[in-house]
Amino acid sequence: MLSTIAAIWQKYGYVYIQGAWGTVYIAVLTVLFGTILGTALSFVRLSRFRALQSVIRLYVWVLRGTPSLLQIYFFYFFVPKYLPFDMSERACIILALVVNASAYVEEIIRAGIQAVDRGQNEAARSLGLTARHTMTRVILPQAVKNILPALGNEFIVMIKEASLASIFFIVEITSAFKTVQSATFITIPALMISGGLYLGLTTVLSAGMKLAEKRLRNND
């Protein structure tokens, strides 16, 4: 088995490397824009605009209640057909993953902010801080400690969900496995290489998140 894996890697390693870069590319964009969008949604959800709160609750309910693959299909077929400008297949899939991730990030950030004692907000306002300064200088620094572990787990999920792009022949680790398997007719060793790459990426990310959490605890 090990000799077969080594032989496949020696001949098709470049295919897996291309797939790994594709996965990292999709995951980074999903994490970046999903976090930005989810953060914005969480602030609106915590605002006093009840109509917008209801819209975001519906948004989160739909996205968390339907499969990611179904959402990707929706964006894959809907966006190019009804938007007035062209989007590539990869862009449509990344957009679907970003929208999906934003729903989970919104819940994580909102819960983290609400976990901070209300007395912190009242004390800051009584000292003359504006609502914006209270949020950015008092609430958020404390909320980060609640948010970071759950957000790290969500980032790992995003890396694994990038595998869904292989269904649409977007270059990433799972599509690399399919390419190698179709060329060699060897399934298990080729699949184990893909699994090892996913495991390596998620392990590095987990180690990075643990290091960030440790530094936050040391700064207390």
Keywords:
220 residues, mainly alpha, MetI-like fold, 8 helices
Break the fold down into its secondary structure elements and pairings:
Blueprint: H1 2-45, H2 50-65, H3 68-82, H4 89-114, H5 118-126, H6 131-161, H7 173-184, H8 188-218
Helix pairs in contact: 1-4, 1-6, 1-7, 1-8, 2-4, 3-4, 4-6, 5-6, 6-8, 7-8
**Count of extended strands:** 0
- Unreliable parts: none
Distance between the termini: 49 Å
| Biggest pleated-sheet summary | none
| The CATH homology group name | MetI-like
What is the CATH topology assignment? MetI-like fold
Strand residue percentage: under 5%
Helix vs. strand class: mainly alpha
Architecture, CATH level 2? Orthogonal Bundle
Order of helices and strands: HHHHHHHH
Q: What's the structural domain tally?
A: 1
| Shape estimate | flat
Q: What is the gyration radius calculated from CA atoms?
A: 21 Å
Oligomer: single chain
Residues in helices, as a percent range? over 70%
* Averaged pLDDT: 85
Level-1 CATH class name: Mainly Alpha
Number of helices: 8
Description of the structure:
The protein is 84% helix and 0% strand. It has 220 residues and is an all-alpha fold. The radius of gyration is 21 Å and the shape is flat. It has helices spanning 2-45, 50-65, 68-82, 89-114, 118-126, 131-161, 173-184, 188-218. The protein contains eight helices and no strands.
In short:
The protein has helices at 2-45, 50-65, 68-82, 89-114, 118-126, 131-161, 173-184, 188-218. With 220 residues, the protein is mostly helical.
